[in-house]
Amino acid sequence: MTDTVPAPGQPIRIDWPCGPWDAIGRELSRHGRCLLYSVLADWPADPVPESRRRELLGREWTRYQAMPHPLLQRRFLASRALLKRAAGAVLGCPPESLDLAHTVHGRPHLRGCDQLDLSLSHTEDVLMLGLTTVGLIGVDIERTTRPLVSGHPTPRFCTPHDMELLRSLPEDARGAALIRLWTLKEAYTKAIGQGMRFRFHQIGFGLDSHPLRLLRPDGSRSSGDEWQFVTYKVSDRHCAGVALYDAGFGGQPDPASATMLDSELQRLLTAGFIRRVGS
Amino acid sequence: MNRRAGARGGSSPPVCAEAEAERRTATLENALGDPTHPAHPLAYRRIVESDERGRLPEDAMGILDDFGLGAEVVPRELGGRFDRTDVLARVLRPVSRRDAALAWGRGCGSFAAGVHIWHAGTAQQKRAAADTLLRGAHLAVAGPAFAHANRFTSNGIHIDTVPGGHGGPLLRGHKAMLLGAGQADGLVVFGRTSSSGAQCSAVLVDTAELSTDALRLLPRPSATGLRALTTSGVEFRNCHVPDSAQLGEPDEGVPLALRSFPLTHAVIPSIALGTADTTLRAAVRFALADDQLERTGPRGRRVRSLLGGAFLDLLICDCLALVSTRAAHLLPGQAGLYGAAAAYVLPRILGETVHDLSVVLGGRAFDRTGVHGIFQKNVRDLPALGSGHAGSAICQTIVVTQLPLLARHAWSGVEEPPAALFRPREDLPPLQSELLFPAGPVDGLSAVLTAGAEGSLPAELRAVVRDLANELRSVHASCLRRPPPAADPHSFALCDRYMLLLAASAVVGVWVHGQFGPDHFLADPVWATAALARIGHRLGWPARTLRPSHQEQVDREVLARFDQARSYDLYDMALAG
């Protein structure tokens, strides 16, 4: 268990297999979203016994088997174990019962359980998972010293306004600002299921504004109140960006799978006496 | 069942015929005018401006009243024009192409309320509701809340009969969000009956007859989609209504709602396709203006592929919408099943599609002014039409409950449905609402997949249909292995796969029965093969890249329909702009 109690809304560190898993539902009910991270180096060598892996991975078992390197397999397995254990804690079901599926463009989702949206990210040995009950979520985690950060912004993924913002900063602050921008762009494009197919140089963020807003290339405000953006420091070495879309339905106070089927509807459907009504 | 449905189709007189359906739809489309023309009353820029103010576009009302839109949801025997569910959805698409909120506020909402009255109302209630709609006023419905209700669907209203009181139903409590409440003259209100736990009753109330103490409009909540309709919720405070307000039998509210689902679940998602059409059209317009389609190389190919993929998604959705609306006439015992599939699958696919298209607009996807501003509005409005997870949970309840029975009885040796189910322009027998069934253990639609896998389809199409038929067998085997319906993610995933397979079956049926039709694009197997591969991808198959010549064929059709202002659906109708 982590000995640090995170502030509300902050990413929660998950130690495998201890958790804290019960904190996830509380975070979701308070904030409509929950951010988790876990450090792979702290995971046991064999987090999921071989006999249980196929059941846990389900239809992703073939993909797992085809991975060419044990390190890739380990990270893949850990990401699915974390995701399904966390989602299972929210939905009140065994992790193995969840089917992780993908949209045409590869966005992951839990098949048949649309009360909970999710997004996964990893960098080096840190896994990050975002969960929400209010709409869509995208997360991205990067090492703050990732090599792309040379202190020189590049037009390939910066808007003219981003470039202006970065140039206005002291040189030693540009790297961290650029990483924040990158994680926010990744988070947004993952939330809408596009990833890097979306042209990063077409969206920017005003990093000094509160709340953060998605901006047009010229720096004018673009997104409305339905989108929230935030970045966090994770451990001392990483930065996480989060994009959250509120679809306007007010969240799901009780996301449990066991309560999803309406008992009265079920009773009527199985009793078969609907035919009598009005006839 | 199928034999009987086929016999009804052959012996009953047709209702609204194709010529009339086409004329009504074209009349409304032309009356609403070219939405890209900035000076037009219903120009996209004006619609977006109205949405920013949380208002319906005022200039639209006169046009819709002149057309008599209210009559479209009133049964023909009551003086209206409603006698076909597919035609209702088709006629309302020109409205939803302009503004989803307008389509709900001036059509869908009244239909969703009215269908309960047509099913269970007294002669007086039917007459009063019909007169309300025929004079251009509107109805709204506070539906019953089911499991996993959300802000749109939750309902804290109670309806009781108080001994020694006025004798009639007493309404108390509130519903925080009621789409269109502020504009409605009549409300269909469902409420829990305190004495009976899970049961509820329904009443029809005339808002003009209630004092502002008895019925209060609640303050406007913030909203992401359909902003113009979320002006208020409602609160009833010791609101006595006469006995004559009772709709159906007391405590029979849930069965009434369940009986209305086959119609509302089919028609409302089908109308949403008009909004999706405009979203694709906005992306094509932007891509052309931005010279994205002229480019050679990966970027140009990617944009063309995105637009083509979105068009295929719209066709997949329209095939399922077509089947679910026409099944109400041809296969009323199965209509509830296909309606649930449409109401579950369409919001999911269309939600993905609009986000895919945002790649084309890039940073301009959030524009709130000008001709491109309609894109962000539709991205927000489309999910609201589907009620989110609360809407899915109802559809899943209907289908999951039937899965074991379907596996035992419905997926082997079942006769294929009649060809008319898949032909958008073919006549239909009258709607017999007393035969509608919310979900039964019969499914002729998926027999189309099995038959297609064994039949003489073109080779590439047959290959993908065979794979889908194998998926159906896999779902079948899983359902047989499992005990009766369980509220667990395994059942929900099976249900999701099955509903995607129903969409695939609808695509196969539309191609098989349209291959000799007049539409050259739809007669060719390319679109159906590509559409089925996209469904397969959603089922977990590896991505199948379209052959370049096939991709070009789809791309050409997307651009041709844009250039010639033709709709991105199975009707391929001429648009005003």
Annotation keywords:
heterodimer, A: alpha+beta, 4-stranded mixed sheet, 3-stranded antiparallel sheet, 11 strands, globular, B: about 575 residues, alpha+beta, 4-stranded antiparallel sheet, 8 strands, about 55% helix, about 5% strand
Estimated structural class of chain B: alpha+beta
What do the pLDDT scores of chain A average to? 89
How large is the count of helical segments of chain A?
7
Structural class of chain A: alpha+beta
Oligomer: heterodimer
Share of β-strand residues of chain B: 5-15%
Helical content of chain B, roughly? 40-55%
SSE topology:
The complex is a heterodimer of chains A (279) and B (577).
Chain A: E1 12-13, H1 22-31, E2 33-39, H2 50-57, H3 61-65, H4 70-91, E3 100-102, E4 108-110, E5 117-123, E6 126-132, E7 135-143, H5 160-167, H6 171-191, E8 204-205, E9 214-215, E10 227-234, E11 238-246, H7 263-271
Parallel strand pairs in A: 1-2
Antiparallel strand pairs in A: 2-6, 3-4, 5-6, 7-11, 8-9, 10-11
Chain B: H1 2-11, H2 18-32, H3 44-52, H4 58-67, H5 85-98, H6 100-120, H7 123-134, E1 139-142, E2 156-161, E3 169-175, E4 186-192, E5 200-206, E6 215-217, E7 234-240, E8 246-247, H8 253-289, H9 297-330, H10 335-361, H11 374-386, H12 388-409, H13 447-454, H14 459-481, H15 489-512, H16 520-523, H17 525-538, H18 548-563
Helix pairs in contact in B: 2-4, 2-5, 5-6, 5-8, 6-7, 6-8, 8-9, 8-10, 8-11, 9-10, 9-15, 9-17, 9-18, 10-11, 10-12, 10-15, 11-12, 12-14, 12-15, 13-14, 13-15, 14-15, 14-17, 15-17
